[in-house]
């Protein structure tokens, strides 16, 4: 699968959890857990980081590209890293640097959808009721073909007559045709994106469709010390 690359953006200066990529879980930095998990899927993996410390944590495992610290987002970091390659692949997966769980079957779903013509693909899973109103849990609604209609931190949709489908939790893994990623990172931030604080809305506001593939797999990004403790428990059995 030389035509697709998984890029992991890892910025050291996280605002919610200081030095997040280097936070240790069971004696190993978070970014190393992420990288090792992805390598087990047999996809090619590259880490894009603004930190030499992060580079040292994973450079014995996989390729690393150093990026400027002032890049505004993970998507910009991925695009920057791709442009540094001698051969730019036609497809890329942007895999969050704080998500230590990775699954080959989900990555293959993303790849298959890209090959089938979708410009952007992401993942979603059934949402537990306790997270319906949690602003830290991003929800997504789709059309009948499985393309995203909207993403929100709010309850989505409002169940005036009860839910007629299972609400979905968005999993922040994105697969792009590389040309679309380059186009995306050149676009100005959009009103809904700025309102919700959700970068993917820039795509929808510019008429770029996002296919949403279903998953039942366990994902748990790390944003807090509580997340670290929860992830440590799960990694013992992963």
Automatic annotation (TrEMBL):
Catalytic reaction list: 3-deoxy-alpha-D-manno-oct-2-ulosonate + CTP = CMP-3-deoxy-beta-D-manno-octulosonate + diphosphate
One CC-aspect GO term: cytosol
Protein name per Swiss-Prot or TrEMBL: 3-deoxy-manno-octulosonate cytidylyltransferase
Pathway assignment: Nucleotide-sugar biosynthesis; CMP-3-deoxy-D-manno-octulosonate biosynthesis; CMP-3-deoxy-D-manno-octulosonate from 3-deoxy-D-manno-octulosonate and CTP: step 1/1
Its biological purpose: Activates KDO (a required 8-carbon sugar) for incorporation into bacterial lipopolysaccharide in Gram-negative bacteria.
Statement: the UniProt record of this protein carries the keyword Isomerase: no
Subcellular localization, as worded in the UniProt entry: Cytoplasm
Molecular function, one GO term: 3-deoxy-manno-octulosonate cytidylyltransferase activity
Alphabetically ordered keywords of this record: Cytoplasm, Lipopolysaccharide biosynthesis, Nucleotidyltransferase, Transferase
EC number, as in UniProt: 2.7.7.38
Similarity field: Belongs to the KdsB family.
Metal-binding listed as a keyword: no
One GO BP annotation of this record: CMP-keto-3-deoxy-D-manno-octulosonic acid biosynthetic process
InterPro entries, alphabetized: Cytidylyl_trans (IPR003329), KdsB (IPR004528), Nucleotide-diphossugar_trans (IPR029044)
Pfam families recorded: CTP_transf_3
First-listed, main subcellular location of the protein, grouped into a coarse class: cytoplasm
């Amino acid at each position: 699968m030389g035509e697709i690359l998984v890029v992991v953006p890892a910025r050291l200066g996280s605002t919610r959890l200081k030095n997040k990529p280097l936070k240790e879980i069971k004696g190993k930095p978070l970014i190393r857990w992420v990288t090792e998990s992805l390598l087990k899927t047999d996809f090619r993996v590259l880490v894009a980081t603004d930190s030499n410390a992060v580079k040292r944590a994973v450079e014995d495992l996989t390729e690393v590209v150093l990026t400027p610290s002032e890049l505004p987002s993970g998507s910009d970091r991925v695009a920057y890293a791709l442009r540094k390659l001698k051969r730019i692949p036609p497809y890329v997966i942007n895999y969050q640097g704080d998500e230590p769980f990775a699954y080959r079957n989900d990555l293959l779903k993303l790849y298959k959808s890209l090959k089938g013509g979708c410009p952007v693909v992401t993942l979603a899973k059934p949402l537990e009721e306790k997270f319906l109103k949690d602003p830290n849990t991003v929800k997504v609604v789709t059309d009948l073909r499985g393309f995203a209609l909207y993403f929100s931190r709010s309850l989505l949709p409002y169940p005036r007559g009860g839910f007629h489908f299972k609400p979905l939790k968005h999993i922040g893994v994105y697969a792009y045709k590389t040309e679309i990623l380059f186009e995306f990172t050149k676009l100005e931030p959009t009103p809904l994106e700025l309102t919700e604080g959700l970068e993917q809305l820039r795509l929808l506001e510019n008429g770029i469709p996002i296919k949403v593939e279903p998953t039942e797999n366990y994902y748990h990004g790390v944003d807090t010390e509580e997340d670290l403790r929860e992830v440590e428990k799960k990694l013992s059995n992963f």
